[in-house]
# Entry
Amino acid sequence: MKILFFSHIFPNQVRPTYGIFIKEIAAAMSKKVDVSVVAPLPIFPFMDFFSTFSGIKKIPFKESQGNVKILRPRFLSFPKYIKWIEFITLHRSIIKNKDLIYRVATECDIFFTHWVFPDTYIALRLAKKLKKKVVLVIHGQKSIGYGEINLEKLFINYTVKRVDKVLVLTSSMKKALNRLFGVPYQKTELTFNGIDINIFKPLDMMYQRSKLNLPKDKKIVMALGRLSPEKGFDLLIDAFRKIYKEENLYLVIVGDGPLRTKIEKKIKKQGLSENVLLVGSKPHNEVQYWLNACDLFCSPSYHEEYGLNVIEAMCCGKPIVATSVGIASRVINKDLNGILVPVGSSLDLAHGIAWACHRKWQSKLIASLGSRFSIDKSVDNIIKIFRNL
# Structure
């Protein structure tokens, strides 16, 4: 079986963590079937003046990573309100690089897409010409334009109805697709994002603290994620301030994003600079060390479609204090691996952290619960769905 991933969300030399989970799925799947990737690169005028995007033009069009062959055609990208035009620019890019892309696409059995528009829309048109099947996985609400009304939504509506199978991470997304777009329940399948349990596994806590220069005389609370409004880091800092002296706590936040400056100011204003460490973004293969250095992991999100970092922390044997959203609401058991708290309450979050600090946890048991979500099991499930098409 030969699978072609088609996704503009895919890591590259400039943005090494952008869609890292898709890269990991492709790498794991390539051990079992033949995998190629078409990862279109969005470009726009004057992009070299933006530090986030400078260097994209130097990324090679064609490369290999392990068993995975990658093609990166460029397409002109547009701001939000005229983003629907991208189906034209991406289609033109595919035509421009027709010889290479069509050769790879002709050899594949299934197009596997990870974003609805423009990726799946264009893949659907190409698959129709080549008489191939298309499987779309929806990783979150943004992919389907949830809550938005624009021209892009019309393309999304057209696309999700015409793919051969839609994979979703939650039953709520399955219901949303049926309600919003009329996608039949039998056309959707539940799957899950998996973890590489050979990387995310329990390691010696004090050794990791020495290596990362973290305090050994305090209980460390770890949080991980993009510093954006929905992640609830403002809530976590408020909760931490209520209990850190009494519980002898130290807070480490791993991640970066648009709210970093605001969070830094909040930490300073509340006099927490000596007790809160904001370390910024870390390569995904280093996150395991930070998780293993903590006593417990906290996920304070207001909203989470899935929340893979909860599973990563579990695989490292760490108890979880989390708001009742995303995957946490399905995997946290108060008797086994952590506690769920209501969304939006810093007081409840503080009580949850304090409770977890005083509880004796079985690290090996928590890690075994996390290992149920291994990436190999996830990939086996997806390949089984492919074979049944």
About this structure: The chain has two domains: 2-194+375-387, 205-372. The mean pLDDT is 93. Residues 2-194+375-387 form a domain with the Rossmann fold fold (CATH 3.40.50.2000). DSSP finds 15 helices and 16 strands in the chain.
